[in-house]
Design a protein that fits this description.
Layout (H helix, E strand, L loop, with lengths): L5 E2 L1 H30 L8 H26 L1 E2 L14 E6 L5 E6 L10 E3 L4 H6 L7 E5 L5 E9 L1
Parallel strand pairs: 1-2, 4-5
Antiparallel strand pairs: 3-4, 3-7, 6-7
Length: about 160
């Protein structure tokens, strides 16, 4: 059984809205596409029908995934915005030897947003960042076995 995901209230609400939309409007829309494609005739050579059925399968998979995430989710208060990195924090870091600053959200992939990269608090980088303060340099082992060092530049 999968471990419950920790989600912020905002992420939980967003996923719940997506689930509700897919189970209502989404299913109705895909049923219409399938019906329209069926009216075109021979299903064995009907690309529209096969595309609609494939879309339906992907949508149903997403509905099942969302239902499991929402059923087991633990709502957590964001620990971000404080003096140290916590779950839900957006942290700006610079890799040793690199002046470029990158932003990461420490949390579940379901918290993903367009403007930041998500890093799990259980990953080597995420675990190293937890508890770090602005100005701290932390070291962690990359999947390749190399030791990487990053400096915390900002915590949002």
């Amino acid at each position: 059984m999968a471990e419950p995901q920790q989600l912020s209230q905002a992420a939980h609400d967003r996923l719940k809205n997506e689930h509700d939309d897919l189970t209502t409007r989404g299913r109705i829309d895909i049923a219409r596409k399938i019906e329209t494609a069926r009216e075109l005739g021979d299903l064995s050579e009907n690309g529209d029908y096969h595309a609609a059925k494939e879309e339906q399968g992907k949508m149903e998979g997403r509905i099942i995934h969302l239902a499991h995430v929402l059923e087991d989710a633990i709502i957590v208060e964001s620990e971000g915005g404080g003096d140290s990195v916590g779950t839900g924090a957006i942290v700006s870091i610079a890799f040793e030897g690199d002046d470029e600053v990158e932003k990461y959200l420490v949390g579940s992939i379901e918290e993903q947003r367009d403007d930041v990269i998500v890093v799990s608090p259980g990953s080597p980088m995420g675990a190293a960042l937890l508890g770090a303060a602005v100005g701290d340099a932390v070291e962690y082992e990359a999947p390749t076995g190399a030791m990487l060092k990053v400096k915390v530049v900002e915590i949002d």
